[in-house]
Specification:
The protein is an alpha/beta fold. The chain contains 13 helices and 25 strands. The protein has three domains: 115 residues, 2-Layer Sandwich (Nucleotidyltransferase, domain 5), CATH 3.30.420; 131 residues, no CATH class; 243 residues, Nucleotidyltransferase, domain 5. The radius of gyration is 24 Å and the shape is globular. The termini are far apart.
């Protein structure tokens, strides 16, 4: 019997899939990175593991556990690539997803746009039942009506079903009746009932969370089943754990049932790592900065602990306007989106000004310098042209990148329209994204009662270490003579190796 001495960490991002292999006996660490495969993310996982086998033969059979973080769930919501979902709710509550809390995220914008519900109105049907706030049954559920409503939804082609009845968190008897009927009438239909997903008060949030869970459940279940199968085919008999949005881990089976809990699993793992390094170096106030290929997110760690919130938003219509997204009520590390990512596209706006993001080139086709068909200049292309990335040592020299093509694209699409030299246009892309992020970062830190001049910047993600110094400098800590500041970075980016987070003092 093989001795299980290895643990594998795997994170699937919008552009790259990253791996860290740890030998628990020797402490030896091996890292690897490959392009994400959007059509089937498990392809990249298998490809990356096979590449690691060339350096550490036979480690798969000795895996004790695989801990996996992924952006698959949140991307499916943002890109609206989930299942065709139906909703059964109490009579009179069909439109709760659109009514929400009846609050405007921008009081004075008469053209304010709100996100479309994941379940369109024709697929939201009612049953005539009622349970009081204390759990008393005011009107019994008719099983014949449930069957009629269910088959009507099935005839409309739903692939997943959400059930959210009024006050079911106090008495779930009617939701459990519907569950039993669905299991008998349509056993292959993906099902999410609010009593299991979120048995809490607040009708809108409970309905929204249950609908979201149902929307991504078939996709997540299929992916995790395929991933488990691929790990087994490679010889792994270790446990597969999935990172939760709250910072803990869960089994793959639980993640299949409640995928809404893993929406922010990728960025959350970076925060937990930041807490670990903070304790190691006795740094209690840390600004975690995770910049990947698509977005940049942040979290403020105070007194050695990250903030934890019970509600958050996904897929905002306006990225930095609270209230313009879909409400989800599950425990999650207090993350804030503060900017674009390495793959974010730079262009000239309608006003003739430089604009970076919010759309990204992702992994397919990716930045121009990857040579995979990208046509629009990105932040990564600018970082390469500025010398922040070494074209001969990208991914440790395993991936060749094309600096000349990136320069030509920036010259033609940015420099010439602006009438500035190539170097100014390139620096403008890099500097603009830093300015965007520092503005949001200062706001985030201030809202939490922190001081941006003294927090340690801990950077993660492929683009995080590249922009860490610019972000730290623009927060003001590195510019004020006589002030105390500290910052550093930790990450698996393409330039910097992990650094010690030793506090420094500005002379």
């Amino acid at each position: 019997m093989n001795k299980r001495v290895y643990r594998l960490g795997c994170d699937i991002g919008g552009t790259f899939t990253d791996f860290v292999l740890l030998n628990d006996e020797t402490g030896a660490i091996q890292i690897n990175k490959c392009l994400t495969t959007p059509k089937d993310p498990s392809d990249a996982v298998e490809e990356g593991i096979k590449a690691m086998l060339t350096k550490t033969p036979g480690f798969v059979e000795q895996l004790d556990e695989v801990i996996h973080g992924t952006t698959l769930v949140i991307n499916a919501i943002i890109e609206r690539k989930g299942a065709k979902t139906g909703l059964i709710t109490t009579k009179g509550f069909r439109d709760v997803l659109e009514l929400g809390r009846e609050k405007r995220y921008d009081t004075y914008d008469i053209f304010a746009v709100y996100p479309e519900p994941l379940v369109p109105r024709p697929l939201r049907l009612e049953v005539d039942e009622r349970i009081a706030s204390d759990g008393r049954i005011l009107k019994k559920l008719d099983s014949k009506e449930v069957k009629r409503v269910l088959h009507k939804l099935l005839d409309m082609g739903i692939e997943s079903l959400a059930v959210c009845l009024l006050n079911s968190f106090e008495n779930p008897v009617h939701e459990l009746m519907i569950r039993d009927i669905v299991l008998k009438e349509a056993p292959d239909l993906s099902l999410s009932i609010s009593y299991e997903v979120l048995p809490q008060i607040r009708e809108f949030e409970r309905t929204s969370t249950t609908a979201t869970n149902a929307y991504v459940k078939p996709l997540t279940g299929s992916y995790l089943a395929k991933l488990s199968g691929r790990l087994e085919s490679l010889g792994s008999t270790g446990n597969l754990f999935i990172m939760l949005s709250s910072g803990s881990i869960t089994s793959a089976d639980t993640a299949k049932e409640f995928p809404v809990r893993v929406i922010e699993s990728g960025p959350t793992a970076a925060v937990i790592s930041g807490v670990y390094f903070g304790r190691m170096f006795n740094v209690k106030d840390i600004f975690c900065f995770d910049m990947g290929g698509t977005t940049a997110k942040s979290c403020l760690i105070q007194k050695g602990e990250p903030g934890l919130v019970s509600t958050f938003e996904v897929g905002r219509v306006h990225r930095f306007k609270k209230g313009s997204g879909l409400d989800i009520q599950v425990p999650v590390v207090d993350l804030m989106e503060i900017g674009a990512g390495g793959g974010s596209i730079a262009r000239i706006s309608k006003l003739g000004l430089l604009q970076v993001g919010p759309d990204s080139s992702g992994a397919d086709p990716g930045p121009i310098c990857y040579g995979l068909g990208g046509k629009e200049p990105t932040v990564t292309d600018a970082d390469l042209c500025l010398g922040y990335l070494d074209p001969n040592y990208f991914l440790g020299g395993e991936m060749k990148i094309d600096k000349e093509s990136a320069q030509r694209a920036i010259e033609e699409k940015i420099a010439k329209p602006l009438g500035v030299p190539l170097i100014e246009a390139t620096w403008g892309i890099h500097n603009l994204i830093n300015e965007t992020m520092v503005g949001a970062a200062k706001t985030h830190i201030a809202e939490k009662g922190g001081n941006p001049k003294i927090v340690t910047v801990c950077a993660f993600g492929g683009a995080g270490p590249v922009h860490a110094y610019g972000l730290a400098k623009k927060t003001g800590g590195a510019q004020n003579s006589g002030s105390t500041y500290s910052w550093g970075w930790v990450g698996t980016g393409n330039v910097y190796r992990p650094q010690s987070l030793r506090p420094s003092t500005k002379p």
